[in-house]
Design a protein that fits this description.
single chain; about 210 residues; mainly beta; 14 strands
Length: about 210
């Protein structure tokens, strides 16, 4: 299998002929992120045509619509239906990063983890290892959750957080899940019912382990 290496940093806007990473479709609002082209910057690339897999290393930066991902390494593949999948690798000192705008709102979801798994088909992101998920209203931090593993579904806007022994630190020796939730100011419009997809909400089944 041929191997290609590129240096210094460069930018790729993939064509279907080259790596099969550009998807067709109208670009309308944040729900269209799934169908936007994936643009990647990195120091080097190894591409395997038979597996439709590209491995990027060195200061990797990915943009896909409103989505931004960063890490030291990212593996990207695409299935025959055109769905994209990616694994971002970071470290405890320099974790991987993910950011996406919420549909129709001036709000952003940001997350960090030593490993980030992006599933374009299911529209889920899994943060593992020192995982953090934050919600910003404009530029102001509104909510923050910390655990060993966090799963965020951008389609249903539901997230789950898992703790346990792997989440233990000097500041959190029990390894339990921790969250900071900011109330909505009274001057703002009352929140919509829980069935409104604009409401980001945690799963009711966290299966939190007590130590």
């Amino acid at each position: 299998m041929p191997t290609h290496h590129f240096s210094p940093r460069w930018t790729l806007r993939f064509l279907a002929l080259m790596a099969g990473l550009v998807l067709a479709g109208a670009a309308q609002a944040e729900l269209a992120d799934k169908d936007k082209p994936m643009n990647i910057e990195a120091d080097s690339l190894r591409y395997e045509d038979t597996r439709q897999t590209s491995v990027f290393t060195g200061n990797v930066l990915i943009t896909k619509g409103t989505i931004v991902m960063r890490g030291s390494k990212m593996d990207v593949r695409q299935d025959p239906q055109g769905n994209q999948f990616g694994v971002v690798t970071g470290t405890a000192a320099a974790p991987g990063f993910f950011r996406q705008k919420r549909e129709g709102l001036d709000e952003w979801i940001e997350g960090e983890g030593e490993r980030i798994e992006y599933d374009g088909k299911a529209q889920t992101v899994v943060f593992t290892g020192s995982a953090v998920l934050r919600r910003y209203r404009g530029t102001q931090l509104n909510d923050e959750s910390v655990g060993n593993q966090i799963t965020y579904n951008s389609l249903t806007e539901v997230f789950t957080v898992k703790g346990g022994p792997a989440n233990r630190t000097a500041a959190n020796p029990s390894g339990r899940v921790r969250a900071m939730l900011t109330p909505i100011p009274e001057a703002e419009t009352a929140p919509a019912p829980a069935t409104d997809p604009a409401q980001l909400r945690p799963s009711t089944n966290l299966n939190e382990k007590k130590k």
